């Protein structure tokens, strides 16, 4: 657990970690009581309901490729 401060407001941040294959991985980040994992799950469910699972996977692959390309160009 930690806190972050922006302007005059302090916000609690909690990291939910799990050890897998000898490495620590962030399973969730909870900011001011709001779970990012739950938010992603709701977003994914909406896309699947409206457009189907294949569309969700296509979108995630595209975002991953964009992030990897950006990392390569900046480093």
Please describe what this structure looks like:
- The protein is an alpha+beta fold and 75 residues long.
- It has one domain: Nuclear Transport Factor 2, Chain: A, CATH 3.10.450.710.
- The protein is 51% helix and 37% strand.
- The protein is built from two helices and four strands.
- It has helices at residues 36-51, 53-74, and strands at residues 2-6, 9-20, 23-31, 34-35.
- The chain has a four-stranded antiparallel sheet.
- β2 (9-20) and β3 (23-31) form a beta hairpin.
- α1 crosses α2 (53-74).
- The longest helix is centred in the last third of the chain and has 22 residues, at 53-74.
- The protein is extended, with a radius of gyration of 16 Å.
Sum this structure up briefly.
The chain is of the alpha+beta class.
CATH topology annotation: Nuclear Transport Factor 2, Chain: A
Mean pLDDT: 94
- Categorize the overall geometry: extended
Estimate percent helicity: 40-55%
Question: Which structural class should the secondary elements be placed in?
Answer: alpha+beta
Q: What is the CATH top level name?
A: Alpha Beta
Strand order of the largest sheet: 1-2-3-4
The whole-angstrom Rg is 16 Å
Q: Sheet with the most strands?
A: 4 strands, antiparallel
Query: What sequence of helices (H) and strands (E) makes up the elements?
Result: EEEEHH
Ranges where pLDDT stays below 50 over 5 or more residues in a row are none
